[in-house]
Amino acid sequence: MKGSYLVQVGLAYGAAVASLAVLNRRTSAVANTSLINTLANAAGDHEDIGGNASNALSAIVAQLQQAGSITAPDSVEEALATLQQAVPDGPASTTDVAEAIAEAGLVPADILSFLNGYMDSELNSVQNTNPAPTQTIYPSKGPDDAPYSVPEQSLRAAIYIPETFGYGRNGKTPVLLVPGTAIPAGTTYHYSFSKLGDGAPVDVVWLNIPHASLSDAQVNAEYVAYAINYIAAQTNHSLAVLTWSQGALDTQWALKYWPSTRPAVQDFIAISPDFHGTVVGTLACPALTYLICTPSLFQQAWNATFIATLRSDGGDSAYVPTTTIFSAFDEIVQPQVGPDASAHLGDIRGVGVTNALVQDVCAGQPAAGFYTHEGVLYNPLAWALALDAIAHDGPGSVSRVDLKRVCAQVLAPQLGLGDVLGTEGLLLVAVAELLAYQPRNTGEPAIEGYAANGSRAGR
């Protein structure tokens, strides 16, 4: 299997950790700094992360500082071929993979400039000023909704609404973008689905979950549940929810335990989801004396109590029309092939589910090539099925998509070379966020009472 990105960070650091007390000296404040500075500061902290990790980070920083003199690929095809060659075969730490990508020229100066400033970017703000909802949705919208633990003002402030958003008055379908682990939504989707509205009748907003979704996924789900009902109330329109990675777990949890969200969601589109967790997740949270994992990484292991709770009582099936799109070459979520694919969701409620493995649907064609966990964000089939789902009742349908045209492409036509490079460069942001996160945990958070006690909301 190709080298793992995010999940391998914990392995690289865990082997070198001396104690949690040492780790707790690291600052959790990342504002008013830069990605390169964060990586450089961590590289100099041998005591916290160990010499090997420090050396790898130093090499990454050196490569990034030379980004302006490195020749980037000239085409999407060249970029994807270079990526496949750069990602190591077999186990590899995140820092090793990041170094290989930087050295291969896959992070040119213009892309790096954007990523370097992500910490202070308005696009990733969790302090947005949004008006009070037009109907009561807090402390609950429905009698079976789980209780919130986060104040309403904080839940609402995490929703980023672009100035161009039409609030349903322009006839466009609202689309809520929910991020994955370790990368804020504004940065996650900048080079991909934030552009979904270019030429399509959709209006995109996104949710910047605090701490880059590294904290308790149960709390992350509160932000999703609130955002769904808030956008539906403000637009007087049902919406599509498009997620990446952990965002699918957060959304499925929200749909399960806040059932008032279900009528508000016309489509759930999950890119590279891990509904079954991942067997690779154990590498991020190894059974070591000193653990340096984050809550939501613990919760995404295949044997996590969070995953078992989510999938219990019918949570392994869709609550709303759902389209999942995933790749066999996913370096973070495994397995992603066969009946046990982590992305697979059942349909016991008969709401409609499409589970699309790009290597199956487009077998032997360009769109079935080497797409990483993050690469599915620019895969042409993913875009085609997402737009098809939004345009029709029910999930995206392979039978409605022009597979001859779509599968012959290597990139969604709405995107370009810079979007491929920018999306793969997200790895650098993930490393920075994982370095900065505090406090570290020694196990996954306890299941909230509303879920542990078999709340009616779970039905």
Going across the major beta sheet, what is the strand order? 1-3-2-4-5-6-7
**Biggest beta-sheet profile:** 7 strands, mixed
The CATH topology of the largest domain, please?
Answer: Rossmann fold
Low-confidence stretches: 1-32, 286-291
The CATH first-level class of the largest domain comes to Alpha Beta
Helix content: 25-40%
Distance between the termini: 37 Å
Fourth-tier CATH superfamily name of the largest domain:
Alpha/Beta hydrolase fold, catalytic domain
What string, H for helix and E for strand, traces the elements in order?
HHHHHHHHHEEHEHEHEHHHEEHHHHHH
In total, how many domains does the architecture comprise?
Answer: 2
Mean pLDDT: 87
Structural class: alpha/beta
- Mind telling me which CATH architecture of the largest domain this is? 3-Layer(aba) Sandwich
Annotation, overall tally of beta strands: 7
The number of helical segments is: 21
- Report the β-strand fraction as a percent range: 5-15%
Per the principal axes of the C-alpha atoms, what is the gross shape?
globular
C-alpha Rg (nearest Å):
20 Å
